Amino acid sequence: MKKNSTFWLFFAVLVVAALAAPLAIASTFWIDFLTLTLFLAVLGQGWNILGGYGGQFSFGHAVFFGTGAYLQVILQAKLGFNPWAAIPFAILGGIVIGAFTGFLSFRYGLRGSYFALITLAFAEAFRVLATSADAITDGGQGIYITLNQDPTKALATLQFGAGNGYYYCAVIITVISLLIAFWIENSRFGAQLVAIREDEDAAEAIGVNAFKVKMQAICLSGAITAFGGVFYAQKFLFMDPNIAYGPVKSVEMLVMPIIGGMGTIFGPLVGSFFLHTLGEVSKHAAHELVGDRPGLDLIVYGIALVLILALLPNGLVGLIRRLFRREVSRA
Amino acid sequence: MLEARGITKRFGGLVAVRQADLTANPGEIVALIGPNGAGKTTCFAMLSGFLKPDEGSVHFAGADITGLKPHAICARGMVRTFQIVKPFAHLSVRENIAVGAHARIADRAAALDQAASIAGRVGMSHMLDQQASALTVAGRKRLELARALATEPKLLLLDEVMAGLNASEISGIVEHIKAIRDGGVTIVLIEHVMQAVMSLSDRAYVLNNGAVIATGTPNEIATDPAVIEAYLGHGAAARLATGGVHA
To answer: Domain for residue B180, yes or no?
Structure first.
């Protein structure tokens, strides 16, 4: 099919470009920039599966991110797990929390803003829990993974120091998340999930088990987001309740796909690139033009967000598609 | 094939449907008619699992399906359409129908193929790649029918698929419904378009204020005094009989 060949073309170009980037970019600042951009695109993809494809807007996706990250840190710091061995448990944690929150919300038919509110509440509850469960999380002071200073053990400890290791890891998890989104767009599960987003009653009427499909979606979403948490934990080797479960990550996760294009494969990635680039550019521009005025870049950033939300209901991917179609019809 | 016994639904103090008995035999087209607010759509909602009857039971294909979820009832072969159409607005016609096809088919490509062939059966082949939100009312009604058909039902519950259509569109959809019945699907339909009810249905039930007040062939019903009174008001039957109707 034509749509799929377009995907594979973009996908191949992106992978080649991503793998080649460190050869062209010497600056560690920009490699770090790319690493974080990709990392947030993965979190955004986690949100996108439930919110973009499934239409269930979560405002507390940090609950999955934080659980994945915390498990990754705690299993190593407290129980002496090897980082590789911790990963399956961290992802499983995301799935379990997904099943738990999903069951409580969907079983009782919470939709729309009610679902958003309950997810927000879950994240807050976990933040409080992480703060008070001193014995496990070391409370508000946060918990550390022991730093590995032996470069030969980089792969075994999943700690890559200043090299490009983290960048390549980010590329790998981005690729995995894109492939999952591609599978969703080409499977019965995805078709049923999108049908629920469009009209849950109509979907039920023609044989979609809405509860089951939403449960699967929130578990998958939780797994990907927790996987993102694993990456964060390994990169920063630290976790505390505010980073894990605070509203900042929840908001970041939903902004990427909304700006980039909800319910599209590349939406979260495009959104993440755009927002981070915009953030950097406005920071530099503000510095150049008016000197050191903290917060000015955030104003520029905010204005851009409002403009996009107001003018591009289908996000940047929607805009790109529209321009592309116009070019095709002109030719 | 379908048998509802004494189904009742109350909304607070209002009894929307009271002790209704309905049956549909294999291969029949059964019409459910009645004035606005008579409880026809509530009946459908109870048959298809969207509402659980407060009393009574629904049997389908030899099994008690009272209280099952709509998707489970669909899996057993009974599917409804909605009076207020519910297209998946951002999807194409093909993708819309494929969701129905997925009720039986796991493979995506096979479901999309099946969708194209179903579209042909209701005259939508030329609109396959159109977005559902761009369809006319007639197109949306057809899409509603096509999606239900794609689930390969044994029994179709059609809720006013002709409302809002013009005369030529109605005769088109009547032909499609006949063809669907001839393909072995039993049909129960709610309809206000009497021309269609008369030409299509083998039997009809008349519902008024939540109760079944008459049942029989369309001709029997058209001359039933209770039915005439339900539509035209108290005493209308007598005035009609004496030929002196002056509303």
So the answer is: yes
